[in-house]
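Q: Structure tokens for this one, please.
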Amino acid sequence: IVWMATPGSKVKEGDVVIRFDPAGAKRQLAENLAALRQAQATLDQATAQARTTAEQDRLDLANARYEGERARLEASKGAIVSVLQGEASKIDLASAEAKLRVQQATVELHTKSDGSRIASLTRQREKAQADVDLINERLAQMDLKSPLNGVITYLMNRSQGWMNQQPFKVGDAVWSGATIAEIEAMLAAPPAWT
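A: Here is the predicted structure, written as tokens:
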């Protein structure tokens, strides 16, 4: 706790009554923002690399298809050219078809691998974004505001044992879910007694 409204003072609905130290959360936010930027950069790099790989694969596949068509054309001349040259053309055709199948398998492998990597990096970026959002939410909760008009009373801090208990004060560490204060509602006008 870095600041508290004076015990027994009147507070209005919406007034800040307790302020917690945001230094640790701000440090954590800075670290998480750096992790988010790194995750985004890694994702952007992987996406660009996947595009480059896909372009190269398309080019290699087109070249393999061209080589296959050229070999098929050469093999079709078998009846016109010598038997030996015709057999060589058939071997070239089989080789070109095999290279085409290998290239098609390579393209499929690259597509699936890049998709998987991008999905994984997207999940990492989403986790980093969720961490940033969580810290921002915690920072928004560093100022406790009065939910109603009334008089504030601080409860006993029993973290040092019941023998050493005293009301919460500036400098105390507070645990999650701790009840720190109560606000006794004030009536708008005193009741009329007759």
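A few notes: Strands lie at 3-4, 10-11, 16-19, 143-145, 150-154, 156-157, 166-167, 181-185. The first helix runs from residue 23 to 76.
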